[in-house]
Design brief:
8 strands, flat, alpha+beta, two-stranded antiparallel ribbon, 6-stranded mixed β-sheet, 173 residues
Length: 173
């Protein structure tokens, strides 16, 4: 299979009317925000997107993305490979009043004045959101083992005199 570059902008309503589907890649090196959140990107972002209309006549599109990256383990500070796999389902909206009427199955995505969405930025956002909150190796693969970690007790702070105690004395007079 050849890696086909996907369009960056498209009209989701027209694509849904045509029942279009796209399968290809976005060059991960072009995703500046995504590159900044990981140690390195090992592959291009493979994307599959299908456009359709549901039984209510709402336009929606769903798909998947996959990319391999290297993350820095927060426990041992070593890089490790991580596979980012995500699925998504969006419905294009124009304005917040349409967002309120949208079923919970769909995430709203704002269209511009020409009725287009920026699919490239949307996929980049999804890739960023699919990263773990705290990057950690599996415990058996990590250089820092549980026995190497130290835990201690925090000593309570000594009690200090209340700075308003002087005011209490003035009130008695």
């Amino acid at each position: 299979m050849t890696n086909v570059k996907l369009p960056k902008r498209l009209d989701p309503v027209k694509s849904a009317q045509k029942r279009s589907s796209y399968e290809g890649v976005y060059v991960a090196q072009d995703m500046k925000r995504f590159k900044e959140t990981v140690d390195s990107v090992l592959s291009d972002v493979a994307v599959k997107v299908e456009f359709a209309k549901d039984a209510q006549g709402l336009t929606y599109f769903h798909g998947t993305l996959a990319v391999q990256v290297k993350l820095i383990c927060q426990r041992c500070n070593q890089a490790y490979p991580y596979d980012v796999d995500s699925s998504f389902c969006f419905s294009p909206v124009q304005g917040s009043e349409q967002t309120d009427l949208l079923p919970d199955a769909y995430e709203p995505v704002e269209v511009n004045d020409h009725g287009e969405i920026n699919l490239f930025e949307l996929i980049e956002d999804e890739a960023i959101l699919s990263l773990p909150i705290v990057a950690l190796h599996a415990e058996e693969d990590c250089a820092v083992k549980a026995k190497d970690m130290s835990f201690g007790k925090i000593e309570p702070e000594p009690e200090r005199e209340n700075p308003f105690a002087v005011l209490k004395e003035l009130k008695r007079d």
